[in-house]
Amino acid sequence: MSTSEIAAAQNADLSRAHDEEVDVENGASNLKRKRASSLDGRPRHQWKFWLLRNYAHSQGGMTLFNEIVEHADKEKDSLRLETSANPKLVGDLISALWGDKVKKVRRGQRIDRKYCVLNLIRKQGQTVQPPDYDVTNDFQQLAKNDTFQLPIGWYKVVDNPCRISFVHPEPLEFGNQRIYKEIVMELSPEKNVSFIVKSHSCELHLSTLNVERIVKDLTVSEKTEVVLDFVNTSKLCLGCILPEDDSIRSLIPHQTGVLKTLNNSEVLTQNRAFSSKCQLFVCYAGKQCSKCSGVSRTYKRRKGRRETGESFHKHCNKRYLTKDEIFQQLQEQRKLNRKHDQEKEDDQSPGSEDGESNTSDDSGTEEEKD
Quick one: where's region Disordered (predicted)? Predict the structure, then answer.
């Protein structure tokens, strides 16, 4: 993908993210919000990982679409994947992964035409771990190998013999710092290889996606190639737009800052927030992960409560309130205290009058007797 295409795609992502925020702000249904926040679910990532492990782009190649679906259906149970791969899901993922490089066509006789995917083939001859496979040696060879083919825009950093980082700069800046996609690859003393993805001060362990079984039989180099393709083709979560009122705060831990594009000065900068537990990837460009959606919802709830003048609970912890909200809480408490004091005075006044009247009545009775 060329630099101009990447820039256009990134600008489109920001535009879609803003449109999504406006749509929710204007009263989108709860069902739509739930769908938007669930797009970062594991099943879709798992099948995306599976496609990258088993299929590759090849100019002039061709694969029957039904064969891909049947292949996925056969391996679902053995890999313990969470959902079935229906034709619609497979078609969406193929388009997301390879875009215009592949094309869905019909081939065969007129009475028996079948759908095929042009320029896509099933991988053959992948290196499977032999019984005496030495993970440590393969890891160290990858660290020393300068000919290992990386996707465009990525570069490798060897931190130590047991840690390799793959870094890709994104055309985005958040909080005056450039955003990167970083894959940290580590070899443990037990000879297990782990992958951690980092971006905008958040991280995601690929083990949380339950994709290890898909690539467990591959060598270190083959695994790395699949992980690089997965991260390179994944869409980053762009957080949520902050309200204009700076006094509104969300209780969910998050970081705020200005997000801007570096390759197009015409795109407006936006004040955005990322959850401290941001899940990094979303399945569709411009969407939010479920954690950042939670931050957005708390902002909107607090904004709505302020607009409607809803009062806070009298025992609400003041560290969760803004200065204005604390002042409002104190004013309401003073009103309650004055009301309580007035009621207490009213209760005491009639009692004292009755006591005086009773005393005068008793004295009058004694005078009559005399």
Answer: 1-37, 331-370
